[in-house]
């Protein structure tokens, strides 16, 4: 089997709202999650990111832990309203200083920063103007991106514009479980289009400013397998691929929408509506790389019945139910699958297969695995956090990643989710992903898990984790 490339980056990832806290300190504006998470019934047990795990005040301590573990790269997001409290206009210099200090601390430990510009925390001021449904938000995003490039671009070489559009648009505008809590597919499609335009504008700005680096886009990688080989299930699985994969990848990697699908959406709802020049923007300003967030596959069957969008937020197995859309498809439990407490199937082969599917459709685009991890309830035994299932999960997925590289995929880095236990948007603090445990009963004290030491060895051995 091919070894990992010499310059392959072993990293880990987080997101601003999920770790920083300090939601209203030092001039930061409110984000849509600061507002939404305080509404009754929106999150598991009413949890929110007001404090999160207090990374804002403990950044130096956390970076020291990253260095101890041997991280070669750290993927983090910037809180847009921490830099621009109103989404545009006046700059909050205290916010700029926090990220500047974080970047300097990482570089001092030879940790390569990878910045995600948008990980779901839109400034509430922009949502009040219409959010992602209006063009002015895309224009404000370009202004925000230019600010980040100007302040951090001389020190940061790896950038991604958006994280998991299918999640923040799908849950924000179709299931209603994320802000702005809308249930309207037409509005979802138009909002998604404005995100693609914002991405293209940000890529254009990146190149106009001659930033020495690469800029990409981060998508969910979710392979689909038909439940049976019936024509109905096969067609349903192909439709799931078109909607959950091609719609999200084609505009940023090919510069166009999937033709058949966009014809259907425009016939049904008249969306997406293109402004003059949109076609050219998408076509000219495509990604330098693609980030893939892989956790699971979905087993797909035809769905003549009702739309179902209930998810498992409690971590009690089999509490989520099926998820799907009437007349299109639904996701069902694989009778032979192995599942987490949150009903996510563990299927490492899907990482190999998914990477190769992306390579086949889009060519030799550079790839980073920007998220991959196990959400679990980690046991504490005699004071030690014994997260052996996470080690097993990551080992299997590193093997799957190595197989894809041996098959010719240009994979350049691996960023497990997450560096530290953090707030899971709708699952609270019960769902743990990190290498570092946070004790919410003892002043948010950091404790190294068993996986912390295992991943340190994985990095030291350049992925030799048999």
TrEMBL record:
Active site: 371 (nucleophile)
E.C. no: 3.2.1.21
Pfam families: Glyco_hydro_1
Reaction equations catalysed: Hydrolysis of terminal, non-reducing beta-D-glucosyl residues with release of beta-D-glucose
Leader sequence segment: none
Name this polypeptide is given: Beta-glucosidase
Alphabetical keyword list: Carbohydrate metabolism, Cellulose degradation, Glycosidase, Hydrolase, Polysaccharide degradation
Alphabetical list of InterPro entries matching this protein: GH, GH_1_N_CS, Glyco_hydro_1, Glyco_hydro_1_AS, Glyco_hydro_1_beta-glucosidase
Family listed: Belongs to the glycosyl hydrolase 1 family.
One Gene Ontology MF term: 6-phospho-beta-glucosidase activity
Top-rank lineage group of the source organism: Bacteria
